[in-house]
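Please review the protein record below. Tell me whether the encoded fold seems credible here:
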Amino acid sequence: MALRISIGQYVAADSPIHRLDPRVKVGAALAVMVFVFFVHTAAQLALGFAFMLGVIVCSRVPAGKVLDSIKPVVVVLLVLSLFNLFLVGTGAVLVSLGPLHVTTDSVAAALLYSLRLVVGVLAGSLILLTTTPAQLTDAFDAMLAPLARLGLPAHELAMVFSLMLRFIPTLADEATAVMDAQTSRGGALGEGSPVKRVRAVVPIVVALLASSLHHANDLSRALDARCYEGGAARSHWHPLRMHWSDWLALAITAAYVAALLALGTL
């Protein structure tokens, strides 16, 4: 039994998106994710998907990788769309299922609110697929640097974020190994009553917790051996510099946001 976790897994490719400054990619992705909540019409939704399709093509990331990375979130969104489908009571009734009614407004809400979030999920997924954890650390370190003047540990926060992404695939692999070991001992998760299945998860959680503590201890020893000190000034092997392509990407993102808002006023 394998856990297919794509979060935090970088896909190497020679594309314009991969070569962008990580600060630009993070800023553009945040803009896309924030402005999906301004999508209220079908035209805006179509523009959002067209924009993300263009970014995916430019990134040269295989479509299968992109779909695998967003599949768990899309499943959650589909479940949430059912609440909109049956709880929105306005509009003309299309189908009645006892006390529940499916109306024209509920169908529109279920589709719109779920699909617009898919646009934001795609933006976040492409960041992780086209940017290495080290680049993400540098980007967040640079973007949070002004907060250091207020006494906040900006570099430490960026480093923790990078380590979190780094260990997601590691813990997923270890969870797969633990589940395979449990299955070989007759403790399959997919058998028995719901209560028995929940109880079968407990040993896996305990094993992963012990493994996480072990990794944290090894990491702290490695940082201590390298004389790591939080808050110390550091240089970078690859300093971040803006190029013309980065400014062009920012301009394209700004044009997308402007067009999205303009469509909302029509």
